Amino acid sequence: MGSSPAPFPDIGKKAKDLLNKDYIFDQKFTLTMLSATGTEFVATGLQKDDLFFGDISTLYKGQNTIVDLKIDSHSSVATKVTVKNLMPSAKAVISFKIPDHKSGKLDVQYVHPHATLNSSIGLNPTPLLDLSATIGSQTVSLGGEVGFDTASSSLTKYNAGISFNKPDFSAALMLEDKGESLRATYVHTVNPTTSVGAELIRRFTNHANSFTIGSSYSVDPFTTVKTRISNNGKAGMVVQREWRPKSLITLSAEYDSKAVNSSPRVGLALALKP
């Protein structure tokens, strides 16, 4: 629903995207094709150092069902089936990977005008359980998540967060790592072509602080330049160009001022969609 709060994993997402999205320091190629029936086929190749990984996936969208099937270079088959409108304002997702018989998982999401609930359970004898919830609205939301391992009868995670969103800015405060760290993020849209953002992390266990600041600037309707710098001495830059409709070429680079004997990391990603 349009007025519902975002799911808990999306708290602080605008800052994460500004500071991390499209920063890839390998070589990646993606080809997407759409059949006459609406089925989508995607081939992806990734070269990381001297290793090469690849996968082929197909995506079928029905009226209330989405089926995603992916086969990778390790001969594993991943399947995800999404059923929308399972009940009013709810959807369910079943996913599993062959030959990993313990990979099955069931996710259920329920969206209310003032709350969003997400639950996940592993489909095996000793499943992992995850539950997250947010309450509020698109402007202000408060949420938390908890994970439980039935095999060890222990909590695997518990986090909480609050976000405040307006058309020109977004701020979030997250208590993470079982209460051992505090993350604050902020993104501000200066004008239609320029956005700036920052992230500050305080770790209570060792009293360490870290921060990252970044920006995004649209040179023209087809070209975007992103920059970021962190207190650990790393500076990064992304240049992305839409050289034809829905086809992107992305060049990334990062320099570590504390590793003067190492070469800067450089990555290239090419996404084609005829």
TrEMBL record:
Protein name according to UniProt:
Mitochondrial outer membrane protein porin 4
What are the transmembrane regions? Answer: none
List, alphabetically, the InterPro entries matched: Porin_dom_sf (IPR023614), Porin_Euk (IPR001925), Porin_Euk/Tom40 (IPR027246)
Example GO biological process: response to bacterium
**Gene3D superfamilies in the cross-refs:** Porin
Indicate the family of this protein. Answer: Belongs to the eukaryotic mitochondrial porin (TC 1.B.8.1) family.
Naming one, the record's GO cellular component terms include:
pore complex
The highest taxon in the source lineage is Eukaryota
* Keyword terms of this UniProt record: Ion transport, Membrane, Porin, Transmembrane, Transmembrane beta strand, Transport
Q: Where does it reside?
A: Membrane
Q: Which GO terms describe its molecular function?
A: porin activity; voltage-gated monoatomic anion channel activity
What organism does the record attribute this protein to?
Answer: Eruca vesicaria subsp. sativa
